[in-house]
Amino acid sequence: MSSVSARLEALKSRHTALSNKIELEQGRPGASDWYLRALKRQRLFLKEQIEGIAE
After folding, report:
1. Contact, 15 vs 46, CB < 8 A?
2. pLDDT computed for residue 46 by the predictor
3. What whole-number distance in Å separates Cα of residue 37 and Cα of residue 16?
4. Structure pTM?
5. How far, in Å, CA of 11 to CA of 47, rounded?
6. Residue 46 burial (C-beta neighbours within 10 Å; 0-12, 13-18, 19+)
7. Can you tell me the distance from the alpha carbon of 31 to that of 29, in angstroms, rounded to the nearest whole number?
8. 3-class DSSP string for the chain
9. CB-CB contact of 19 with 42 (8 Å)
């Protein structure tokens, strides 16, 4: 596996983990809006990195 494809897989894995964490937080009563926004920003950053590599 090349280093680029390994990096892409690692980013996708982190993106999926963040998506799962966001889902759990949204279902939790009293979830912090600030924390959810921070998680979503991280997920968006990962998505942009993934798209930059995949192009």
Report:
1. yes
2. 97
3. 16
4. 0.86
5. 8
6. buried
7. 6
8. CCHHHHHHHHHHHHHHHHHHHHHHHHHCCCCCHHHHHHHHHHHHHHHHHHHHHHC
9. no
Q: Which two tokens stand for residue 25?
A: 């937080």
Closest to 40 (Cα-Cα) out of 24, 19, 11, 25: 19
pLDDT of residue 6: 94
For tokens 């995949």, name the residue.
Answer: 54
Confidence band of 48 (pLDDT split at 50, 70, 90)? very high
Furthest C-alpha separation in the chain: 43
pLDDT band for position 41 (50/70/90)? very high
